[in-house]
Amino acid sequence: MRASTFRRLLNLWPPFLINAIRVQSLSDDYSEARVVLRLRPWNRNYVKSQFGGNLFAMVDPFWMLLAMHQLGGDYYVWDKAGAIDFVAPGYEDVYTHFRLEPTVVDELRAAAAGGGKVLRWFETEVTTASGKVIAIVRKQLYVRLKPRMRGPLDHDR
To answer: Which InterPro entries match (predicted)?
Structure first.
């Protein structure tokens, strides 16, 4: 699927649409994405700052999606774990940027070449327009070659 079509679909996805999360850009090769979480009356917490669940949601799928598209259909790519560190309250719109470097994709391919599972952490800062860090989100991906791509002795690992 073309990245521009996928971006539009993500922006219509109910968890993003309802919570004012928008994918601002998604590169044609799925190596980079920019996301914004608009502060709205319906997505504020009790103290009128960004709701923590939305801060995590705006980051949640992107490392997995970028890796899936970069690695291609020969690999399983799943989210394994996630954590968020709330650094400061977000009293305005917040932004995040993802860039999956080609060297990281090469490292994932090399690590998965033997057929075993690969676990790798990715870290993303959520910031205001001026660059103030609001949260740091860590996501761990699971990557593994699909059975049809593994050698005959690698199926049981």
So the answer is: DUF4442 (IPR027961), HotDog_dom_sf (IPR029069)
CA distance 92 to 101: 29
Q: How far apart are CA 92 and CA 48, in angstroms?
A: 10
What ranges in the chain are assigned the alpha helix state H? 3-12, 14-18, 52-57, 62-71, 102-112
pLDDT tens digit sequence for 85-139:
999 999 999 999 999 999 999 999 999 999 999 999 999 999 999 999 999 999 9
* Phi, psi of 129, deg, nearest 5: -60, -30
| pLDDT tens per residue across span 24-63 | 999 999 999 999 999 999 999 999 999 999 999 999 999 9
Cβ 37 vs Cβ 93: under 8 Å: yes
